[in-house]
Write a structure and sequence with these properties.
By secondary structure, the chain is of the alpha+beta class. It folds into 2 domains: 7-94, Phosphorylase Kinase, domain 1 (2-Layer Sandwich), CATH 3.30.200.20; 104-282, Aminoglycoside phosphotransferase (APH), C-terminal lobe (Aminoglycoside 3'-phosphotransferase, Chain: A, domain 2, Alpha-Beta Complex), CATH 3.90.1200. The protein is built from 9 helices and 9 strands. Strands 1-2-3-5-4 form a 5-stranded antiparallel beta sheet. Strands 6-9 form a two-stranded antiparallel ribbon. The protein has a two-stranded antiparallel sheet with strand order 7-8.
Amino acid sequence: MPDAADPRREAARTVLDRINASDTPLEVVRDGLSLLVRQDGVLVRVRPRSQEPVAHREVEVARALAEAGVPVVPLVAGRGQPWIEGGCVVTAWAWVEATGTPAPAAIGALAAALRDRTVGAHAYDVARFDPLTAIRNAVADRPVGDEQGDFVRRRAQELIEPWGRIADRDPAGTAIVHGDLHGDNVLLTADGPLLTDLELAGAGPASYDAAPAVVAVERYGADPATLDAFLAALDADPRDWPGFGTCVQVYELWVTAWAVAVRDRSPELAEEAAIRVGCLRDGTCERWHLR
C-alpha cells in the first residue's frame, strides 16, 4: 500500500494489525471522502477525527439494522468501535464478496425491508437523519468565497425550512433511512443484497430512499424502466406525496456537494461538479454522470 506517510493509511494499518494480525498486503479499495482499506476478510473505513460523530452514527445504525433483521454488512471486532488512531477515526466491517450488480428490483426490495422492519420503534433507536448537516460538512473544506461551496451552503440553508416541514410527515412513516441508496451502496452476494456505506443513515422519512432512483432517471439519464422496477419492489410510489419533491431536492444537493468536495481529484470530477452546480443554480442542465 503506497504513501505510507498518509495518516489515514497509518491508522488503517494500526487497526488491522491489532484486529486481524495478518501478513497479507493491504489493499486500498476506495479513496474518497473516507479511505477504505481491505486486508483478508476485514474492511476498515478511515475518516478524519472531525467525522467521529458520523462514525458513531454509522456503527449505531449498523447494530440497529442487524437487530431488526435488515440485511447489512456486519461489523467486526466487538463493541469497541469506532477507534481513534493517529488523529483519525476508524471502523471495521466484514469484507463480503459481491457476485454481481444489484438489479433495481433488488434495491427496491431492500428499501422495502428497511422501511417495513424499522418503521416506528426501531427508528427511534438511532440518531436523526440529517442530510443538510451532511451536505454542509461535505463542503466544509471549501472556503467562504469559493463559488461552488458557497452555492451548496446557501442552497442547504434554503432547504432547512421545507425539510423541517416534511421530515416527520411522511405517510410511509419514520424509519431508518439509508440516505444514499443506489447500486454502489448495495452488495449483491450469494445470500442476497446487503446494505453498506451507512454514513448518512438515521431516523427519517421512509420515502427518502426512493429519491436516488428518481434522480438516476431525471438527472443521470437512466432508463425509466429501472425506476418502475424499483418502485414495484418497494410496493409504494412516494411521488404521490407532495413532500417527496423536497426529498429529491435534498438528495440532488447531497450528490452535488459530494462532487464539489472531490472535484480536485481529477479534471472529470471538476467538470462534473460544475455541471451539477450549474444545473441546480442556473437551470443549465446537462446529463450528470454516476460516480
